[in-house]
């Protein structure tokens, strides 16, 4: 619990300093007080734990973000091509994708990654599946190939102490 509180406090202070842009003594004092207040409230609500501060993801997260950005760019080009080709290139479909991640956080990251990728939208998330609307059957087949799911699974390098 202590480690997550320190992590949350550091994030709050960094975010406040980044967004504030004012560094006078009075405003730094107000910033510190507001960060401490938010941290105290979060701890009191029981909202500071492994799920809200997933420190175990940090080692692999930058690599995943780079890979996801490449997928987003590739999907943008695919959607543009399909729109320019006309109605015959678009074949909307609903598909159920299996989730192999152990945690609800992994399922959430996968569902959000799918939605961020143009041409696909996560419609529903259940215990081990995500229902996806895709602009084409090929896009849905790519998701069922499981590369995105395996990359999200790779983020879970150690068990965070809670299960679905």
Task: Please tell me about this protein's structure.
With 164 residues, this protein is mainly alpha-helical. The protein is 58% helix and 11% strand. The chain contains six helices and three strands. Strands 1-3-2 form a three-stranded antiparallel sheet. Strand 2 and strand 3 form a beta hairpin. The longest helix is centred in the middle third of the chain and has 25 residues. It is elongated, with a radius of gyration of 20 Å. 18% of the residues are buried.
Produce a short descriptive summary.
The protein is mostly helical and 164 residues long. Helices cover 58% and strands 11% of the residues.
Give the radius of gyration. 20 Å
Rough outline: elongated
Provide a count of the helices: 6
Main sheet?
3 strands, antiparallel
For the terminal residues, how far apart are their CA atoms? Answer: 20 Å
- The main sheet orders its strands as 1-3-2
Family: Belongs to the CPA3 antiporters (TC 2.A.63) subunit E family.
Keywords: Cell membrane, Membrane, Transmembrane, Transmembrane helix
Membrane topology: Multi-pass membrane protein
InterPro entries: Cation_antiport_E
Characteristic key phrases:
164 residues; mainly alpha; three-stranded antiparallel sheet; 6 helices; 3 strands; elongated; disordered C terminus
Task: Give the SSE layout.
Elements: H1 2-20, H2 25-44, H3 61-85, E1 93-98, H4 104-116, E2 120-125, E3 129-134, H5 137-145, H6 147-155
Antiparallel strand pairs: 1-3, 2-3
């Amino acid at each position: 619990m202590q480690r997550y509180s320190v992590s949350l406090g550091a994030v709050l202070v960094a975010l406040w300093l980044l967004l504030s842009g004012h560094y006078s003594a009075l405003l730094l004092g107000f910033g510190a007080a507001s960060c401490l207040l938010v941290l105290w409230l979060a701890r009191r609500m029981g909202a500071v734990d492994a799920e809200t501060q997933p420190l175990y993801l940090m080692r692999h997260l930058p690599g995943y973000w780079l890979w996801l950005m490449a997928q987003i760019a590739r999907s943008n080009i695919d959607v543009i091509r399909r729109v320019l080709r006309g109605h015959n290139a678009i074949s909307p479909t609903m598909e159920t994708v299996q989730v192999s991640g152990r945690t609800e956080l992994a399922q959430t990251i996968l569902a959000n990654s799918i939605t961020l990728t143009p041409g696909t939208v996560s419609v529903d998330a259940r215990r081990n599946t995500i229902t996806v609307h895709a602009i084409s059957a090929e896009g849905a087949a790519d998701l069922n190939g499981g590369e995105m799911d395996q990359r999200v699974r790779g983020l879970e390098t150690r068990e965070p102490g809670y299960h679905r």
